[in-house]
Amino acid sequence: MTKKEKRIAIIGAGGLGVCTALELSKRGYKVEIFEEHHTPIQKASYANEGKIHVGFIFAMDRSFQTAKKMLDGAIHFMDYIQRWADIDPEECISTPFYYLVHKESLLNAEQLNQHYQKCADYFAELHSKTQKKYLGIFDDLEASLLPRNQMEGIGNPEFIDDVFKTSEYSLEPRYVAQKLTEALMDDPNLTVHLSTKVLGVSEKENGFKIKFEQEGEIYSETFDEVVNTAWNGLLEIDRTMGIEPIGEWSHRYKFGNKILIPLEDSDLPSATMVLGPFGDTVNFRDKGAFCSWYPIGRTGWSTDYRAPEWDSMYSEQQRMKVFKDSFEELKRRIPSLERLNFPIETVDPVGGVILALGNSDVDVEKSRLHDRFEIGLRSFGKYHTIDTGKYTLIPFLAMEVADRVAGKKEAYALS
Ligand SMILES: Cc1cc2nc3c(=O)[nH]c(=O)nc-3n(C[C@H](O)[C@H](O)[C@H](O)COP(=O)(O)OP(=O)(O)OC[C@H]3O[C@@H](n4cnc5c(N)ncnc54)[C@H](O)[C@@H]3O)c2cc1C
What we know:
415 residues, FAD/NAD(P)-binding domain, D-Amino Acid Oxidase, Chain A, domain 2, six-stranded mixed beta sheet, binds flavin-adenine dinucleotide, FAD/NAD-bd_sf, L-2-hydroxyglutarate oxidase LhgO, FAD-dep_OxRdtase
């Protein structure tokens, strides 16, 4: 069978589905993509904070495997994503992150510092091996503890014990989503079925039958190879193939509030409060701010196979209340937010689903949510299912999936 004859289906036009499709197209394959929403990349890969993790946040994973995984993803992120879309990091990069050590942190500044230096060492190793730069720009990774007299403008000492200045960044995800969507829609090798929900997949003698719903009607089509990247719907679809997750899991709904006004660097710091159920602010310069306070913004929790339809469950008023209450908590900790003026119409309180192994929350020291290394690609013959784990890993995983489809690496049989 030639590349062009092979019938490949991707389920889910989120960040991973679209990057995988674009890479397969680049390698000469034709792909059909099924997306239940009316527009591609409008779910988690749109609502998220865009942080390209360098492992700092995963200090509770003492095995260091999660940090390594994030750094592997981070160092390749820009190089790979630029294969598929015209993305200029300078147009979407945030200000650098400060890490604010909150008073109830699960680890203290000394313990965190040890972990951060380990991340920097592993980055240096990767950089010398690959010659790649973090986000195509940075040769080094840094995290340095600020003297106490310099931290006050950044974090309120009533809540914050210490502050690290780091060289970790976010990329504004809406900009990235738009560029990838344009590339997807322009690609003649890719057919996108929007407003099309996949109900299940079954293995047949001549391939895989995908059953899907379009405008209230049920259809099915057969494909030679299937890639499931449906994130919020991943496990439910896997289940129709008889595939179970590798352990207990949870779906969470988390608000990724945006304030869509142009900002100066000095208007607010990009800040991650560690380590536990705290929050983040991101300064995306002319592309606005992101802010989330976990105890208020993490509104949904489910251990069902498919995440509930949280996007349609909240009224505008409820969403705005989540934003306002979160913002009040953030203001108490990050003093510059007191001075941030914005019309309320510029606030977009969107949310997104987070799938993860583990079903106790991040305030529990032993929670599996502190690890994110048992994620990625599982292949069962020519059915591939991918738990993306993090936005950071999307380009890295898209390349891995394309390699698998191209037969570069052995897939193991469904037993
Ligand atoms: C608020 C928030 C902040 C986050 N911050 C970060 C961060 O800073 N850094 C980071 O690395 N990660 C972050 N994440 C995690 C990150 O967003 C996800 O890991 C990543 O975006 C998942 O990408 P994906 O392509 O797998 O999923 P998605 O982008 O959600 O795409 C999945 C697609 O599948 C479609 N779909 C689902 N079911 C079906 C079906 N049955 N049929 C057809 N289509 C279907 C969906 O509609 C969707 O379009 C955050 C997540 C949230 C919610």
